[in-house]
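Here is one such protein, fold included:

. . .
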Amino acid sequence: MLHATAKAVEGPICRFRVGETKLKVGGKPMYLADGVLQVEESGLEVLVLEVSGALGTHDASPSTFDHIKGACGAHAMIKRILRKHPNADPIHLTTTSDLFLHASAITGNAKSLNNIRLWELRPTSNGRVMLMEHLLGSTICTRRDANEMVNMLDFFWAIKHHVERVIGSIASLRDSHDVRTDNRSSITFRPIARKIKIEPIKLKEMANGQT
């Protein structure tokens, strides 16, 4: 489904790579993702996939680990996107984001099985906080149920639109970088990536006033 989603994205050509895929973020330790959606022209990764266990597994431990791992991968991807466009106007900092898709056989409350959920990671509070927001979720279709199949197809169609939105925000970041680079003969800009000083926090915690 993610191969089809990548091909359906309007604009730049995208590819989905699956199976212990190394993120192009550099550094150590090496990050191996279960899958990555990449923009071919720029080489930037905009979505990382983590799959926690086989379908129907009732162990929540891998899900918790992969949730944290996926967030770290998405953070590394954001940093790479910003480092590729260091002279962009900081106004674009909080509109730049990427996506984390997490498939897990069980949720933390053990009440819902075979879930797949999409998260968005983006800087906020002028780069002081990295916000991870749950966008949407679905149940992995395991039987010949028309409603479940339609819901899952709608889910992946929505992912396509979120990918296009993320790519659009990166294009704005790139355009800003290009303009400011052309005009920087007598100006020194602080690289936009340096503005990020991370304090990870989820949207629910922000709503509850926990910072």
